[in-house]
Each structure stands twice: as structure tokens, then as C-alpha cells.
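Folded chain entry
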Amino acid sequence: MGGAILHRVVDAMVQEEKTRMANLVSEPDEASPLRESNYKFIACTKTSISAERLLGSLTPEQRSYVSVTHSLNVPVEVIENADIVVLAFKPFMAEDVLTTPGMHQALAGKLVISVLAGQTPQDLTRMILRSEAIGPSQLDSRANPVLMSRPIVVKAIPNMAARYSQSTTIIETPEERLPDHMSSFVEWLFSQVGTIKYLPPNQMDLGSVLVGATLAAMTVPVEGMLDGCVVEGMKRPDAMELMIGGLKGLTAALEAGVHPAVLRESISSPRGCTIQALLTLEKAGSRADYAEAIINGTQHLKKPKH
């Protein structure tokens, strides 16, 4: 996910620079958060293979904005030199990474953007503070100077469509209002990979499943229908082409506000193939399976993290 976000953001920077040069404009557009600084990105990977793969995926123009480093250890020195930090590693790694000695000092007062599903900003902040060996009794003391310099953590969950600039990214509504320049940057960052929607904290786990896991879950019925087409004599690429066209039509209808039940009813003719297909799915209990998939995925994210 981190790589997809990086590619789209750097693409936007390259295009903005080209536009400025073509129009002989010396400064970025006033609406762009880039106007305050010439951003350069440092991408940190764990292995040299990952670093080489990421670097190889960048065009020469993109490379002028990005440096890629790798280390088996947490790169605290790199983080210390950054103005903004994006956490895009696997969620299960959060504790090991953020409790690394020196992490609180490296992140103090900075904007930290997390794309880690299941980890709240409060969870991540507590981990960062533990890197300073703060006791539980001190975590509630607002007068504690260490707490006063805590990072500002924002949670945002994009999905795999970010690589195609078609992600729907959910952003958790912060407990406290963000400074305008930070809020503008977060919105600009994720608008480069698609659309954004704010959700309250108590809906973020469900939203994460809906925008993320659901994409994977929906490939199951797609693949099943393609298998059925092959059995009935159609080549899989041809079936895929027709399936994609149908899904685009379905998307257009839903975006126009058509209710799914109304849509099904409108295309179900007496003695027709549509009602036969629908009855087959209802007999199999497919509707309940998908409801349960959403519930189980959400409950998994809500489980206490150890």
C-alpha cells in the first residue's frame, strides 16, 4: 500500500512541476499544500530486495523526489529527519517498530499518518510513548512534558485501488482539530489516490473492512461466475470482458441512487434467467454469508491487540 501511495503522490508532484514549467510559474498553486515546501520522500523498506524493487518501479522523473533506503533495524535516524511520517508497514509490526528506543523523540510534535487497519491513533500514541519508558500512571498526566510533545497521529485507510487512483480512503475524524496545514496535507495526500470520506472513530473498523477486505471478498463470486461461463463454453477472457462491463453498469446504477432490491426487481422477468439465477443464490444462503463476512472481519479488528 505504501508503494501505491508513493507512486501516485510523486506522479502528482511531477505533473505539477511540469505545469509550472510550461506556464513559467515559479511557485506551486496556492491550493496545493506543496506551496510551503519542496517535499522529498524517503521510502524505508526492510530488505534490499524490496528497496531495489521499489526503486526499479520509479521513473527517472519520480526518482528525483524519492530516495529509498533499507534496514533490518527501525530507521530512527531517518524518521528523526522527516517532517511528516507515514506508517505503511504490516499492522502486526506496530508494537516492535513504535516502541523502538528513541522513537518518541524522533516523532515528537510531528504529523504521523497511519494506514494500519485495526490500530487506533490512541493505540499508536501509547506505543510511541512507551519507547520513552513512560509508566502507566504518567500516561494520564497532561502536564507531563513528554506527553505535551507527543506526535499528532491521524488514521487513514485506503484500499488496493490506490494504485489505479480509484481508492476510497476513509479518514478518522480526529479527537482534536488538526492544524489547517496538517489537515490540508492529509486530504491532498489521499486525494491523489482517489476519493476520501471522514468517519467517526467507532466506525473505522467497519469502514476498513468495507473499503478494504470487501474488495478481496467480491472476487469470490466474480471468479465463481467466470467458472460457470467456462463450463458453459465461453473463454475466460471473453467472460471477463463481459463481466467487467456488467460491473461498470452496476456501479453506475448504484451511484445514481438505485436501491439494490429495486435493481434486481427491475431486471427479473417472469420465467426469466435472472430470477432463476437469483433463486439459486438465495437457496445457497449467499446473502447471509456476505453479511457474516463483514461482521467477522469487523469483529476481528476490534479484538484487543497483544
